[in-house]
Specification:
With 227 residues, this protein is α+β, with helices and mostly antiparallel strands. Helix content is 41%, strand content 16%. A 5-stranded mixed β-sheet has the order 3-6-9-4-5, with no helix packed on it. Helix 1 packs antiparallel against helix 5.
């Protein structure tokens, strides 16, 4: 941390300025479906964002004919998207290159960082802080299906140190994010391994009967195919 401490001491001697998110992001655009013809695009819905890894997982292919009403926002590489519907589920992610120019749900607030002011991954890490989610929880609306408006999200004030300081902080936090993702993947693999051995070791005779039944079924299918 000494490198970061030295940079802060040298470049932020008067403290770090806080700014509203709306002042450090650019305005995204909506798609004009009438201009798309039969073009196929990938649709990022709320469920597309993995809540553990904060990566975009499964998407669907849409066209102007079958696009859901919420499929409106064009995303670009480096955008930070934050799920504003049931926001405490913490669905947020950075748009990678493969989804540049694709579509996301209006259930996301699209934050397009002005990289002259703030780095993409610096904004991404800010969106994951306890302070941000305390603000979200205090400002979400609705009981059974809570949500927070985009303009309220953008009122949240974040620290904006010089870019060189941001780069050093991002290096550290990205390293921990990568380690966390690797540990999560390893944990999921161990869960599957445990389930396999649990089911194999604790079924005893019933497992044998089930296996025998499956084998008999396979043999019957083979005999039927010969007739």
């Amino acid at each position: 941390m000494s490198r970061i401490d030295d940079l802060i001491a040298a470049q932020c001697s008067d403290g770090v300025e806080f700014k509203a998110i709306e002042s450090i992001v650019l305005r995204p655009a909506n798609i004009r479906w009438a201009d798309q013809g039969s073009a196929e695009l990938q649709y990022i819905d709320l469920t597309s964002v993995d809540r553990a890894t904060h990566a975009i997982a499964e998407t669907s292919t849409i066209t102007s004919e079958n696009a859901p009403s919420r499929a409106q926002q064009v995303v670009r590489e480096g955008d930070v998207i934050f799920g504003t519907t049931r926001p405490m589920l913490k669905r947020y992610a950075v748009i990678p290159r493969e989804f540049d120019g694709q579509i996301c749900s209006t259930g996301f607030c699209v934050l397009r960082p002005d990289n002259n002011i703030v780095l993409t991954n610096f904004l991404f890490h800010l969106i994951g802080t306890d302070d941000f989610y305390a603000y979200v929880e205090a400002n979400e609306r609705g009981a059974s299906y809570p949500a927070i408006p985009d303009n309220v999200v953008k009122k949240f004030r974040v620290p904006v140190p010089p870019l060189e300081v941001q780069r050093e902080i991002v290096k550290v936090l990205d390293t921990f994010t990568k380690l966390e993702a690797e540990l999560e993947a390893e944990l999921e693999a161990r869960r599957r391994q445990y389930k396999y051995y649990r089911d194999m070791l604790l079924t005893f005779g019933e497992r044998t009967d089930a296996d025998a039944s499956k084998q008999a079924s396979k043999q019957a299918s083979k005999q039927a195919s010969k007739l």
